[in-house]
Design brief:
With about 120 residues, this protein is an alpha/beta fold. The chain contains three helices and four strands. Helix 1 links the parallel strand 2 and strand 3. It is globular.
Length: about 120
């Protein structure tokens, strides 16, 4: 699936992957991830999402279109932070997951996180 739009500052290549990038789109906060996302990058994502959960009132979208690898620790962060947002009457969705990200979400039974574009 092709990205919806290019994330701000997406010129980075290599390891470690760039940190999550945050922007606002139409009343939602969008967090862009790129490259390999795993146990080592999970704390950075959680920190960004936790800060937005506490500071804002907007729903969160995590764009996974640029992800080349994702493991269970990242899926765990998404699931836990989704639950935290639900307690605040807000939601977290995943937008445009790459093939590997979609496969991991499906395997973990979290395909309901994926935003369906109409």
């Amino acid at each position: 699936m092709a990205p919806i739009a290019s994330p701000p500052g997406s010129e980075h290549d290599g390891w470690p992957p760039p940190p999550p990038r945050v922007c606002r789109e139409g009343g939602r906060v969008v967090v862009w991830l790129e490259g390999e996302q795993d146990l080592f990058t999970a704390p950075a994502l959680h920190a960004v999402l936790a800060a937005e959960i506490v500071a804002g009132r907007d729903d969160l979208v995590v764009d996974l279109s640029g992800v080349t690898f994702i493991d269970g620790s990242m899926v765990d962060v998404l699931a836990r932070d989704r639950d935290a947002l639900r307690g605040r009457d807000r939601c977290l969705t995943v937008r445009a997951p790459s093939r590997c990200a979609q496969r991991m979400l499906d395997l973990c039974g979290l395909d309901d996180l994926v935003e369906v574009l109409t």
